[in-house]
């Protein structure tokens, strides 16, 4: 499902609602982060989950069901709730639970909305940075500051204008899972940096590109990206150039002008390695 730039703009009131909702999710997760008293466990897929993940998602589901009762919901923890409207919300209550449990303040609260035209709203809330990146189809991309984000206090976001691949500032996510070939190819041409907020860095022009490889992302991880990146003037696909929502769940996000150059650079390269097997050898 690609972003349709020629589709009608999303309703501003619905975008404001999404901002308020993600802000409240941020407040809840921040209280939990500093409050402690929670325990983590492993899900069947090996990823961590804590009570706060579940509590935040349950809150979001309840508010969405009240405000848009006919819409479907897909959440990382609660799975699918069917709707009758053909539209749906996608929830990642705490993206980066491992960061959360290790007291690293890099987790986010992610929310996306898809209607009959495709991606329509994307929200990535970074509560401990007191920063939110939000976009609505046809309404632009915005960076909102403070503990109580509001579109009226935000600033319009736009990607960089760099056209030269050599030395492009490129954020890398999860490099422990990258194969040597991918890491080397990028290292030879661009300026690689660790990611501490890839999408926010891209849409504000601080970074020119970002790469996510290794273990595949979940749909809920990538769902906010198409509308946010497109409304800021950039482009996002998987590393093979397919739709990020229908590809292999790797991610290439750029300012748009560099995208084809990056695709050629990583063409046919492997995208993951079994880093856990390496760790088990010891």
UniProtKB/TrEMBL annotation:
One of its GO terms (biological process) is signal transduction. This is Inositol monophosphatase. Mg(2+) binds at residues 76, 92, 94, 221. Its cofactor is Mg(2+). Keywords: Magnesium, Metal-binding. One of its GO terms (molecular function) is inositol monophosphate 1-phosphatase activity. It comes from Streptomyces violaceusniger (strain Tu 4113). InterPro entries: Inositol_monophosphatase-like. Pfam families: Inositol_P (PF00459).
């Amino acid at each position: 499902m690609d972003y349709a730039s020629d589709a009608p703009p999303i309703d501003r009131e619905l975008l404001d609602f999404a901002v308020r909702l993600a802000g409240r999710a941020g407040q809840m997760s921040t209280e939990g982060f500093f409050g402690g008293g929670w325990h983590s466990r492993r899900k069947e897929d090996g990823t961590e989950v804590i009570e706060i993940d579940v509590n935040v998602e349950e809150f979001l589901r309840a508010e969405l069901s009240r405000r848009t009762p006919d819409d479907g919901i897909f959440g990382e923890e609660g799975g699918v709730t069917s709707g009758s409207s053909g539209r749906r919300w996608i929830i990642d209550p705490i993206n980066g639970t491992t960061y959360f449990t290790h007291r690293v303040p890099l987790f986010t609260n992610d929310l996306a909305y898809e209607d009959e035209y495709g991606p329509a709203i994307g929200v990535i809330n970074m509560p401990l940075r007191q920063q939110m990146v939000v976009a609505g189809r046809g309404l632009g991309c915005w960076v909102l500051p403070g503990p109580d984000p509001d579109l009226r206090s935000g600033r319009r976001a736009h990607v960089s204008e760099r056209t030269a691949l050599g030395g492009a500032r490129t954020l890398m996510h999860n490099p422990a899972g990258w194969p040597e070939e991918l890491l080397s190819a990028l290292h030879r041409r661009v300026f690689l940096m660790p990611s501490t907020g890839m999408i926010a860095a891209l849409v504000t022009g601080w970074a020119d590109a970002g790469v996510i490889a290794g273990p595949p992302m979940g749909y809920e991880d990538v769902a906010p990206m198409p509308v946010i990146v497109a409304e800021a003037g950039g482009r996002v696909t998987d590393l093979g150039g397919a739709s990020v929502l229908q590809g292999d769940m790797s991610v290439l996000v750029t300012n748009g002008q560099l995208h084809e150059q990056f695709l050629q650079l990583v063409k046919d390269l492997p995208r993951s390695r079994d880093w856990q097997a390496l760790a088990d050898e010891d």
